[in-house]
Structures are given as structure tokens and as C-alpha cells.
Amino acid sequence: MTPEIIDRVRQGNWNPDNDEADRKSRDALAARGYWQAFQVVKESVSKVLGGENPGTLARAEHKECTGNCSSPS
Questions:
Q1: Span 63-69, mean pLDDT?
Q2: CA angle, corner 33, sides to 12 and 67, nearest 5?
Q3: Are 62 and 68 in contact (CB under 8 A)?
């Protein structure tokens, strides 16, 4: 998230449906969030394979994983 994008959103000038640059920014931010979430999942799988309880781990890390998909960056 850049200061320019934050200003455009704040001013109501960010429009990913009709502006190519805004669409690319949205797509890049989404890709980063999914990548970050994937990193959490990989680490969680490694912990489960190392012997941690999958249910306990899922409860503890679910919010972090889903938060990465929707956080600004």
C-alpha cells in the first residue's frame, strides 16, 4: 500500500473497476495477501508434521491466515 493509493482511497478517487492503474494495484495487493497467507499455511503444515496438534494450531493461526488475504499489506 503506497501513500498515493491511501490518498486516492481517502479522497474517493480510487476506482479499480474503471481505472487500469487502480485495478493493477488491487490485483498486486491481493496477490501479496494470498502469498502471505500461503506462507502461514506452509509453516502450519510443517508444524503439524513436526507433531503439533492440528486442531489447536488451526484455531491459533486461522485469523492470521485469513487476515493476510484482506489486509492492506
A1: 64
A2: 90
A3: no
Q: Is the pLDDT of residue 4 over 70?
A: yes
**Residue 66 has what pLDDT?**
65
Helix (H) or strand (E) holding 5: helix 3-10
Report the amino acid identity of residue 28: A
CA distance 44 to 71: 20
Contact 29, 73 (CB under 8 A): yes
How many CA atoms lie less than 13 Å away from 70 in the CB half-sphere? 5
The grid coordinates listed for 34 are 494470498
Instruction: Compute the average pLDDT of residues 32-54.
Output: 92
- Give the number of other CB atoms < 10 A from CB of residue 25: 19
